[in-house]
Design goal:
Distance between the termini: 41 Å
Strand content: 15-25%
Number of strands: 15
Shape: globular
Largest sheet: 7 strands, mixed
Number of helices: 10
Radius of gyration: 22 Å
Order of helices and strands: EEEHEEEEEHHHHEHHEEHHEHEEE
Helix content: 25-40%
Length: 372
């Protein structure tokens, strides 16, 4: 399993046939045909990451760089548009599409030309980014690891996103009640319990599968292999065992007195984290930069495994990797169903350039159109 992403149960094989965008960041127009392996070459600031970002937005409806829509819209424009042309895995013509319109006043979503809900786009094209900023998965705050896990779960089960939004809505109400003294808390505990149980159970299941896959994936990247070195633990401050509505309801009642005293929640969807330990110590405090990068890559490749391979979006992550780790990453990418690769120096890609569709980007134009 260390060499290439496995294909577990998932949607019928579907690939990106074309990437299109308008008024997205620096690009007035973006239109590129895709293939099983797409390589984007050019200096920094030429828009390589924006092309990867367009694929991610089209597949998941969100950016991997920002949560603010206005950061995505080209200066002077009111909205940006991203469109993915889709087709069968292994080649062939475009047979489907999905589109995201990004605007500060509200986003819209289209599937095969019909306006749909946001969740109706999730999971159709499953994507996994590997980014220079992924060190934050190891060294950053718990919120980043929760977001990473939630997107993984939502791509496998799009209804997870809706359940999570509902949980957060109820939790906002509970926070207001607690801040105001706690009157009327019990009914909202009963509303929250089954919803939080469903979200927490999905996270636990995904975290356990991710941990097992990541330990395996880390072998080529950690000196001496991960055996006995790398471990993961999902900590959600909820009872062990099956997470039923009754069990979560009892947990909420157990902390009721403390919550009323503190006037803030002690149990919520935000009270959780994926704990990462290396050599028995928290990796975020003791791992080196190289070890942190190895763990982050292992997490991303493990996520791809759980998504059945899908599409890898590999930004310029090569700089911090030595020759051995670069070779291991190239081997993993070579087995991907589809991959979009960005790099400043094509030499780091080695054999990945073979049979790839290569685009060379320049800062001189705000139009990237292969058909122009």
């Amino acid at each position: 399993m260390n060499g290439s992403p496995v294909r577990e149960s998932g949607p019928a094989s579907i690939a990106v046939r074309r990437v299109g965008a308008a008024s997205l960041r620096r690009f007035a127009l973006l239109s590129l045909p895709a293939s099983p392996r797409v390589v984007l070459l050019g200096p920094n600031g030429t828009g390589k990451t924006t092309v990867l970002e367009a694929v991610h937005i089209g597949a998941t409806t969100v950016s991997f760089r920002t949560r603010r829509v206005r950061d995505l819209v080209r200066r002077g424009e009111s909205a940006a548009r991203v469109r993915l042309g889709l087709g069968p895995d292994g080649g062939g013509r475009e047979t489907a599409s999905q589109e995201v319109v990004l605007a500060a006043g509200g986003c819209r979503y289209h599937r095969d030309g019909e306006e749909v809900r946001r969740m109706d786009l999730l999971g159709r094209v499953r994507v996994t980014p590997l980014l220079p900023g992924d060190l934050a998965l190891v060294f950053g705050p718990p919120a980043l690891r929760r977001r990473f896990l939630d997107l993984l779960v939502a791509q496998r089960d799009p209804s997870h996103g809706l359940r999570l939004l509902e949980v957060r809505r109820v939790e906002r109400r509970r926070r207001r009640i607690l801040a105001e003294g706690g009157r009327g808390l019990s009914p909202w505990n009963r509303v929250l319990a089954p919803r939080l149980a469903a979200v927490a159970a999905a996270r636990r299941e995904a975290a356990a599968a991710l941990a097992a896959a990541a330990r395996d994936r880390a072998a080529p990247f950690l000196p001496g292999g991960p055996s006995g070195r790398l471990s993961f633990r999902w900590d959600d401050a909820l009872p062990e065992g099956p997470l039923t509505a009754e069990a979560v309801g009892e947990a909420l009642e157990a902390v009721r007195r403390d919550e009323l005293r503190l006037r803030r929640p002690k149990v919520s969807s935000a009270h959780c984290d994926l704990r990462i330990h290396l050599d028995g110590a928290p990796a975020g405090r003791t791992a080196s930069q190289g070890e942190g990068r190895a763990v982050a890559i292992a997490l991303r490749l493990a996520a791809a495994d759980l998504l059945g391979g899908g599409v890898l979006l590999v930004d310029d992550v090569w700089g911090e990797l030595d020759g051995t780790r670069r070779a291991a990453l190239r081997e993993a990418i070579a087995g991907a169903r589809q991959a979009f690769l960005a790099a400043c120096d094509e030499a780091v890609l080695g054999e990945l350039l073979e049979n790839a569709r290569v685009f060379r980007l320049s800062a001189d134009s705000d139009i990237l159109d292969s058909d122009a």
